[in-house]
Design a protein that fits this description.
mainly alpha, 2 domains, 3-stranded antiparallel beta sheet, 8 helices
């Protein structure tokens, strides 16, 4: 989180007025500007994912895992979420073996290039910070107007 704060301050020489804007700006730096500054070459399938797609994918993973109370999830599980997401994209190759390889490449790219998902133990992943999982979960709820999900969990402190 300290790194995220430093990145935002370095970019803007100030901090946003509220936390959600801070996270949005920080994630924008991690997902978009970080690559440009470091001249990183992307895996082809990951290169085809635009910023909005990357955010939508991370939001889907965050929402699903948060709703299931999973702060840690198996690699195969997160790859299955990625397969579901990729298979709905226009450029997707729908052959199962290709989707499997693509999902693994996307997961490894997110881990290596943005640090938003990390392998905590062999084959066990989580968001690098709970704040990212919460932010992307909230983004999903707002984007699909799924406020009934909040109502279902109104008595749960973590929501």
């Amino acid at each position: 989180m300290l790194t995220l704060l430093c990145l935002v301050f370095e970019e803007n020489e100030d901090f946003p007025a509220n936390r959600s804007e801070l996270y949005k700006e920080g994630l924008d730096i991690l997902l978009k500007k970080w690559d440009a500054k470091r001249n990183i070459e992307r895996n082809q399938v990951y290169k085809n994912l635009l910023l909005d797609c990357k955010e939508d994918l991370l939001s889907e993973i965050a929402f699903t895992t948060f709703e299931q109370k999973d702060y840690f999830f198996k690699q195969k599980t997160v790859e299955a979420y990625i397969v579901d997401f990729i298979s709905n994209l226009q450029f997707a190759n729908l052959e199962p073996e290709v989707l499997k390889l693509d999902s693994e490449a996307v997961l490894k790219s997110i881990e290596a290039q943005h640090g938003l998902l990390v392998e905590r133990a062999k084959g066990i992943y989580s968001f690098s910070h709970l704040t990212f999982q919460e932010y992307f979960c909230a983004r999903k709820i707002v984007s699909v107007l799924a406020y009934e999900n909040l109502v279902k969990h109104i008595n749960e402190k973590r929501w």
